[in-house]
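Final report, Chapter 2: Outcomes

The project's central promise was a pipeline that accepts a single protein chain and returns its three-dimensional structure in a standardized token representation, suitable for archiving and comparison. That pipeline is now operational. To close this chapter, we reproduce one record exactly as it appears in the project archive, with the input sequence first and the structure output second.
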Amino acid sequence: MLNRHQIEINQNRITSALVSTNRKGIENLINWFEKSNFFTSPASTRFHGNYEGGLALHSFEVYRVFNESVKRYGLNISNESALIAGICHDCCKINQYVANKLKKGNLSEAKPYKVEDNFPFGHGEKSVLLASRYLELTDSESLMIRWHMGYEDPLWNDYKDKVEEKFPEVVLFQHADKEVSLITKI
């Protein structure tokens, strides 16, 4: 669980990092994040980061872990692309989770949040669409965001060979998301 101060610290470090890219449209992306619940939303309904502020924290941690892997393996991926992909990979979750209150009015401990998706466009593809409303994404950024779910996406098997051959960073990005989600549970 994050307190208000921790959420503000996370918001400031994400905002500062995004501003440092000088990417055209970055201010519009940040503005959308600030007007939405990006910085206060949970990352999931009951699994990783299922607490206030979990989505932004999860997104930043995926960026951080992925960027470390890029350096370790010497891939030619800029810090800017790692940041954009990491922060935007779960944009589809913005304004989607609501408190799951029981009949007595208290929050469910087993599943504190539920999904109310008013634009059922998918997961990775929806995140690409939403992020690209504000930024022009590179092919690599688009593919990392689109395919970050890997084998959990039923269509991954249809595209995996070509994606892995031309964009090996997608595999590293999938692993970063898994590490943050399943091992650190952020």
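Archive annotation: Residues 85 and 173 are 9 Å apart (CA to CA).
This record, like all others produced under the grant, will remain available to the consortium after the project formally closes.
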